[in-house]
Amino acid sequence: MSDVPAASAASGRGTRPSWRAGDTSPLRVPLPPAGPAWFPTVMGSGILSTLVALLWSEYAAGLGVATALLVVTWVLLIGLTAGFVRACRKDRDFVGAALREASQRPAWGTVSMGVMSAGSAASTVLPAWSEGLSGVALGVDAVLWTLGTVLGLVVAVDFAAGLVARLRKVRSRRPGPMGLEPGGSGGLGTPTPVWGLTVVAPMVAATAGCTFIPHVSSTAAKVALLAVIVVCFVVALALGALVFAAAYHHHWRREPLPLALRTSLWIPLGVVGQSTAAIQLIAARGSELLPESARPGILHAAHLYGIVVLGAIGTVLAAYASVMTIAGFAQRMPFGTGWWSLTFPVGTCALGAFYLGQVHVEAGWHVASGVITGVLACTWTLCAVATLTAVALTRKA
User: Fold this and answer.
1) Which end of the chain has fewer beta carbons closer than 10 Å to its terminal beta carbon, N or C?
2) What SS3 state is found at 394?
């Protein structure tokens, strides 16, 4: 989901495509090394595994597909982590650049989401095989959720601090779009939807964290966990609104989005889908701690939020992203890890629809979730084939 130039910065690779004159293949571009830039593959695989298990685990074929995707998710998670550690051991400057450069912040946001996605997939799929695996799966999920939440909040707060510092710096000068200079914030460049990767992770943490509430025994612990979840929700929603408003404003009023970043227009759907799922679970779990008279109002508000945000805003954003992406493919948009933006954000919308149907007992939303998951399966397959092809071409070069 991160763009190729940003993802390759830490490796010292150039950002210009490496094809020769006359070569119009959309797959001949520099690929970043194993590490944060590739974690969108973990995100997309993990959420597809989770959705297939949620929707079709009662069928042997569905459980088999979910399990296969879970294996893929964990192989990617372990392999990319090992590859990044190996690269850091060989070159100390590599890890320094990955941590210092502002252009790497979106990539670290995907690491946070990838880690949590792998944990959620494990805690959803493994208990479907055997109840005896529930405790282990939940423990693994809790560890990964904690790591992902801390990393996601650090990335989001760090990005927000850089943005505020930049805004203060330009107060005495003529500001650019949304108060930002054309040069962007702290080396991130001009505002694009890729910036959103720095703020979506806390919303993922909010959704995933709700699954632990039923397993917490004491009321005080439930309240504390719910407070963390609400903080994550508010941080992601507030920063997401600012970042995406700046990105769309710049895209529509200042300059068109570069061809290679067309798929990043799907990233805002990550906030749309995850916030819909999160608010349903927060309302359902949180209302249990409130007087019974307050529960209907809270659930109704969550339902209304889902209809407006997912049903209305999400539909418009998805339609616009579809048109722009199809046009990008027609113009031979080069392959990059950003293509995986076609997976996880779509999956979050399916997840939001699933929990709307589950919490409010509305079959129509479950049908919508199944349809969106089918779309996700298609985009995941497209990205997987394109990735394998790109890697094969790179090795031959």
Assistant:
1) C
2) helix
* Phi and psi torsions of 301, nearest 5°: -65, -40
CB-neighbour burial class of residue 218 (10 A; exposed 0-12, middle 13-18, buried 19+):
exposed
Burial class (CB in 10 A: 0-12, 13-18, 19+), 172: exposed
Please name each of the domains of the chain with its CATH number.
Answer: 32-396 (1.50.10.150)
pLDDT, tens digit (0-9, with 9 covering 90-100), for 21-45: 333 444 455 788 888 999 999 999 9
Task: Give dist(CA 203, CA 209) in Å, integer.
Answer: 10
The torsion of the CA quartet 230, 197, 160, 355, rounded to 10 degrees, works out to: -10
CA distances from 115 to 46, 56, 216, 303 (A): 9, 23, 22, 29
3-class DSSP assignment, residue 101: coil
Question: What's the pLDDT tens digit per position in 310-344?
Answer: 999 999 999 999 999 999 999 999 999 999 999 99
Reference 18, options 32, 9, 6, 28; nearest CA is 28
